[in-house]
C-alpha cells in the first residue's frame, strides 16, 4: 500500500512520550498548528476511550490554530506497557499523576498560551484532582455528568446495576483487572480504577459523597469558566447526571448548553458522536469554535 501524504493545510500529529509525575511513561500526541497559534487545548478522555478516538477533533483544532494534546491514562491505549493486573492506579492516579503531567507537557510546549480543557465524560469529572488546574483559561465539558447509576438514562440502568453489583465485584478479583472488553462494558480497566469508580457510581453524590468533604472543597477551588455541552439523546448521561456534576463546581462561572441533534441537523449525537468527523460543521464549527474565543 502506497502512503498518501497529508494535504499541506492539515497538521500532522507528532507522537510524544510523556512522563507522569511519578515517572510512569505515557503515550501522547501533539497536534501543532502550521500557522500562528491562538491557544492550546488538552483533550482529556472518557473512561475506557483511547486517545486515537479524539484525533479528528485534535486535527481540526490544529487547523484553526489551536495546539492540541491527546494522551492515554496508564494501563490504557498506547500507555499500556505491562499486563493490566500489574497496573497500580485508581482514578485519582489518572488525574493527579497522568493528566497533571499531560497538562504540564502542553504548558511546556506552548508557554504562555491560553489553556482550554476539553473533558469528555470522566475527563470533566477529574479536574479538581489535577495539579495546575488554576492555570486553565476555560473548561469545555462534553457529554459529562456524574456516574451515579440511578440517575443514568433508564435504558442503561439495568446494565449499570449488573456492572456494579455483579460483574465488577466478581470478575475484578478473579482477573486482577476488570475485563470490560469481552463484556462490552466500558473496556479493560485496572483493578484500582474499577474499585474507586464503583464507589463513586454507587453514591448519590458521586465523588463528593464517596470521598468526603475534602473532595467537595477541591471542586470548589476550580474557578475557570466552564461551558457544558450535553445532548438530549445521550444514551448514558441524563440531564440529571449533567446538572449534578456541574453543581459541584460552585466557584466556576458555568454555562449549560443542552443540544438536541435535530437542532443542529444531525440524526444522533449520543455520548460519543460529538468527536466523530461528521460533527465538524454542525458542532465543531457552529458550537465549539465560538466557545474557543479564548477568555
In short:
35% of the residues lie in helices and 18% in strands. It is of the alpha/beta class and 295 residues long.
Tell me what you see in this structure.
- The chain has 295 residues and is α/β, with parallel strands linked by helices.
- The protein is 35% helix and 18% strand.
- The strands form 2 sheets. It has an 8-stranded mixed sheet with strand order 1-2-4-3-5-6-9-10. Strands 7-8 form a two-stranded antiparallel sheet.
- Helix 4 runs antiparallel to helix 6.
- It is globular and about 55 Å long.
- The chain starts with 13 loop residues before the first strand and ends with a helix.
Tell me the strand percentage band. 15-25%
Overall shape: it is: globular
Q: Summarize the main sheet.
A: 8 strands, mixed
Q: H/E series, N to C?
A: EEEHEHEHEHEHEHHHEHEH
How much helix is in the residues? 25-40%
- Alpha carbon gap, first and last residue: 45 Å
Uncertain residue segments: 1-8
Q: Looking across the biggest beta sheet, what order are the strands in?
A: 1-2-4-3-5-6-9-10
Mean pLDDT: 94
Rg measurement, Å: 18 Å
**Number of alpha- plus pi-helical segments:** 10
Question: What's the helix and strand layout?
Answer:
Layout: E1 14-19, E2 25-31, E3 39-44, H1 55-63, E4 66-71, H2 91-109, E5 115-120, H3 122-125, E6 138-142, H4 154-175, E7 177-179, H5 180-183, E8 188-190, H6 191-201, H7 206-211, H8 213-220, E9 226-231, H9 239-247, E10 254-259, H10 280-291
Helix pairs in contact: 4-6
